[in-house]
Every structure is written in C-alpha cells, then in structure tokens.
Amino acid sequence: MQFFKIIIEMKTSEQPLLQDFQIEGVQHISPTDALRALLNKEAVMIDVRELNEVKLESVPLERVLNHPMSVIAERLPYIAKNQNIITACPGGVRSTRIAFLLMQNGYERVASLDGGLNTWKAMGFPFENNLSHGGCGCHSGTQINANRPSAPLKNEHKSSDFKNLKPLS
User: Among 1, 52, 120, 148, which residue carries the largest CB count within 10 Å?
Assistant: First the structure.
C-alpha cells in the first residue's frame, strides 16, 4: 500500500500588497493567511531576525523557528525542503531576500510575510514583548488576541533548535 502526503498550497501572491520592497519571483503571503497556515500546521515560519531582536520580541507559536539572516546559509541543510515555509522579519525586506535565497537553493514552497512582523503585530496576531516588565505590571507589550484561535505557545527560544529540525507533517 502506498501513502501519499497531501501538500497544502499556501494562498500567496506575486506582488506584495502591504510593503514596497519586492524581488521578482518571490511569493508573498498575507498575515491572515500566514496565521491560518501556522495554526493548521500547513507551514512553518522562519523568523530571519537576529537573535538579539528575537530576545526582545517574538511570535509565540510552536511552528515558528529562528534562523537569523546572518547564518541562514549555514543552516540550509537543516531546513526541510518538503514543507511550506513563510519567511518573516519586521518589514518584509530581509524575509523577501531570504525567500529568494531559499528559492535559489531548491525550496519550492516559500513565501515572505507581506508587510512583515510589524503588520502582523498591528493586526493583533500572537506576539510577545520579552522585555522584563516593571512598574505597573500591565504587560502592555504583549499582544495575544483572545479572540484568535488558540495555538500551542513556545516556552522559550532555543538558538540551537535548528539542528533537530525534521520535516513537519
């Protein structure tokens, strides 16, 4: 008996709608469609920000990985090609460049987060400010919308997790 994996196509566009920067051939995905793909376990998000940026703010979803732009070329052997990949950065510039790099290295199902994480945050999607909170204790930097579907959250950020990557099913 043969088993076939169903590949879910991400809803993408050739032109970004929420940012000016683009590279011909790179697909873009809206924050709404990206969140849906992550929650439905149809894609992984690769946050290409540097570790110091991720320590300040992060997307607390289980299918979000950090592969900083400065080292992602070294990590390509650890990133499975047989999965949908969404690249993300604050404004969409670095993520578009990394999506292009991935495409040049044989990754076929890649899209850059249109408008970047700044747009993601503005839409109220899961995002955490990881700075120590003082004063009033209101945690005003944490933006996890209670009206959104719940998803498993990361408890901590491990910079070496990439070595244990396996294709996600």
Answer: 120
Per-residue pLDDT tens for 73-130?
Answer: 999 999 999 999 999 999 999 999 999 999 999 999 999 999 999 999 999 999 999 8
How far is the C-alpha of 112 from the C-alpha of 28, rounded, in Å? 5
User: Would you say 116 and 95 are in contact if contact means Cβ atoms under 8 Å apart?
Assistant: yes
The DSSP output letter for 100 is H
- Note the CATH number of domain 27-126: 3.40.250.10
Environment class of 85 (CB within 10 Å of its CB; exposed 0-12, middle 13-18, buried 19+): buried
* Domains of the chain, residue spans: 27-126
- Farthest-apart Cα atoms in the chain, separation: 62
Question: Rounded CA gap, 124 and 108, in Å?
Answer: 30
Could you give the CA distance from residue 169 to residue 166 in angstroms, rounded to a whole number? Answer: 9
What's the rounded Cα separation, in Å, for the pair 106 and 129? Answer: 34
Q: For residues 14 and 36, what is the distance between their CA atoms, to the nearest angstrom?
A: 19
Alpha-carbon span 147 to 136, nearest angstrom: 25
Contact 48, 89 (CB under 8 A): yes
